[in-house]
Each structure stands twice: as structure tokens, then as C-alpha cells.
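We were asked to recover a plausible sequence for a given structure. The inputs and outputs are reproduced exactly as logged, with field labels preserved.

PROBLEM: sequence recovery
POSITIONS: 328
GIVEN STRUCTURE:
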């Protein structure tokens, strides 16, 4: 089979498209013909050696996939050959075939097209778990989503709206994304690079502060988020897009019962996969019933993975980037 291999740590040029060994599933594993693989910021971090769950080269990149089951191991009971699935593969997703554990493979209705399915697993799973299991947001509460123009952000706005949240703010640093965010669920859009965004949030919330903040940026946004986080509010950190240092004073937390929570969906999948099942079933239900529409900004052929990484790193795409293998 053909696929992409990260041959060493470095820039997008280290992603090479060539022949790879055919994967063979174990007893509790599933062999999947890849019909689509999303490109995630974590993929670019792993390529440079900065992802906390990354592997050493050479390896096949990619952490989620959509496709058709070709073969199952002797101990697999919940999926069968011919099933359409989304999965979190063991062997990477930037290839024509991949392997996933049964407990991280989820059957989807055939009414969900593969491009949409490929765009959803990581971002929709991450957001759904953060909002329902970690942030435990209520419809009466307010939400701030930083980096709202990316795959996670565009999905977060829609899922929050589906959960009944009516006070939703998205933040971006690219003005051209603002109108698009309003179209998919943001009541307000602010610029997270502005020195005034704390004042803007406090004005939006009538001085109460925002109840839940989803922050993939870190850096100096953390201290500013705490200034506009409501008492009993939850600030969820799930990335570090900014290079600046992060400082938190204990008095910023205990005096008003504020919480700062670190979250990694990848860590959940690796160490608590049973917790992921409920989340992904809700994701599939929302997709099937068209409660969320995956925002796909760019589709590229598998061999153009390096170009896809450049789009992600330059933040030039609204929504997701998806790789589509040629299946003839």
C-alpha cells in the first residue's frame, strides 16, 4: 500500500509519500480501508517532536480516520467487514489502510459521507467530551471558544448551540473569519490578540464573566482568561499554540472557586478508552441527525500531506483539512 511516512523530525518536507508494508490486524483489532483522514494541529506538533503523545520517526502520521472495515481479528465482536466506521488508529491514518483497536472503532450510518466522517472524530470528540464531561456546561451558562476558526473551534460553536447554550463567544486573530463564525453559532466574535478582550467579555456577560472557556492557546491568554472567568467558572486548557509563558496565582482560583483544567482527548483514548465510547456515540448521533455540520476548508490528495500541514501551520484555513486517498 501507499502512504505518508514521517522519516525524521522537522518541517513539512519530512513527510514522504511511498510504498509501505501492508498492516495486519491482531486478535482484537480491525483493518480499515482509509477513505479519509483529517489533518490536525497535533499532527504538525508530532512531526516536529513536540506532541506529548508523539512517536519517534519513522512513523505514519494521523490520529483519526474514516473508512470501510476490510478484516477483523478473531476476538472482535462489535464491527464486521463492510461496516463504515470512524476510528482512532494504532498505525496512523495517512495511508491507504490502517489498523485500529476494536474499542476505538465506531460504526457509522452509511448516510454520513466519508469526507464529513473523516473531519469529525478528533475535533467533535474533543469538544463533546470537554463540554459535557469536563466543563459540564449548562444551557444557562456562557461559553468562550478561543481559536474558533479552526476545526475544534468551528465544531465547538455548533455543539454548544445544540446543547442549548445561548451565550457563545468565539475568538480569532484573523478578521476574515468573523462573519463565518456568526453564521455557525457565535453570538459574538472577538480578537484574542487584542489587549481589550477581557473588557469585551465582561461587557458581553454584563460584568458576570464567562462560565466556561475552551483555550488551546495558553501563553498570556491564561491570566487574561482568569480575569474574565466567572466565579465557579471552568477554564479548560487543551493546547499550547502560543509560545509565551503561563502564570497562575493561587489567589486567582480559590478566592472565587474558579477551576483550571488540563485536557487531552488523546490521553483519554490511551488510558481510559471506555470513557470515549459514550462521547463518540453522541458525536455520531449529532452527525447523523445533522445537528452539526463539519466545516471543511480544504481537501487534498494523500500525497499532498506536506501542503496540508503548511495550511494548518499558517492558519489559513477555516475549519478542517482532510486528506483523501485514491481508492480507484
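RECOVERED SEQUENCE:
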Amino acid at each position: 500500500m501507499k502512504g505518508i511516512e514521517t522519516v525524521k523530525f522537522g518541517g513539512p518536507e519530512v513527510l514522504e509519500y511511498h510504498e509501505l508494508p501492508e498492516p495486519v490486524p491482531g486478535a482484537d483489532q480491525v483493518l480499515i480501508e482509509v477513505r479519509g483522514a483529517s489533518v490536525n494541529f497535533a499532527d504538525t506538533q508530532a512531526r516536529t517532536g513536540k506532541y506529548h503523545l508523539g512517536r519517534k520517526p519513522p512513523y505514519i502520521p494521523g490520529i483519526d480516520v474514516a473508512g470501510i472495515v476490510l478484516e477483523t481479528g478473531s476476538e472482535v465482536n462489535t464491527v464486521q467487514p463492510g461496516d463504515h466506521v470512524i476510528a482512532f488508529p494504532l498505525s496512523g491514518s495517512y495511508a491507504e489502510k490502517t489498523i485500529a483497536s476494536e474499542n476505538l472503532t465506531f460504526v457509522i450510518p452509511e448516510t454520513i459521507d466519508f469526507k464529513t466522517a473523516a473531519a469529525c472524530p478528533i475535533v467533535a470528540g474533543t469538544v463533546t467530551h470537554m463540554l459535557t464531561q469536563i466543563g459540564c456546561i449548562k444551557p444557562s451558562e456562557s461559553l468562550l471558544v478561543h481559536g474558533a476558526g479552526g476545526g475544534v473551534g468551528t465544531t465547538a460553536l455548533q455543539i454548544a448551540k445544540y446543547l442549548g447554550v445561548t451565550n457563545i463567544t468565539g475568538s480569532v486573530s484573523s478578521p476574515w473569519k468573523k462573519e463565518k463564525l456568526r453564521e455557525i453559532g457565535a453570538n459574538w466574535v472577538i480578537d484574542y490578540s487584542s489587549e481589550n478582550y477581557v473588557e469585551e467579555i465582561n461587557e458581553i456577560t454584563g460584568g458576570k464573566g464567562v462560565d466556561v472557556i475552551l483555550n488551546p492557546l495558553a501563553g498570556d491568554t491564561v491570566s487574561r482568561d482568569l480575569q474574565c472567568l466567572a466565579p465557579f467558572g471552568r477554564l479548560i486548557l487543551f493546547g499550547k499554540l502560543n509560545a509565551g509563558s503561563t502564570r497562575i496565582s493561587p489567589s486567582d482560583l480559590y478566592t472565587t472557586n474558579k477551576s483550571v483544567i488540563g485536557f487531552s482527548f488523546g490521553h483519554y483514548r490511551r488510558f481510559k478508552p471506555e470513557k470515549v465510547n459514550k462521547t463518540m456515540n453522541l458525536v455520531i448521533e449529532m452527525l447523523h441527525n445533522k445537528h452539526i455540520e463539519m466545516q471543511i476548508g480544504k481537501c487534498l490528495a494523500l500525497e499532498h500531506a506536506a501542503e496540508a500541514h503548511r495550511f494548518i501551520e499558517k492558519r489559513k484555513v477555516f475549519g478542517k483539512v482532510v486528506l483523501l486517498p485514491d481508492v480507484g
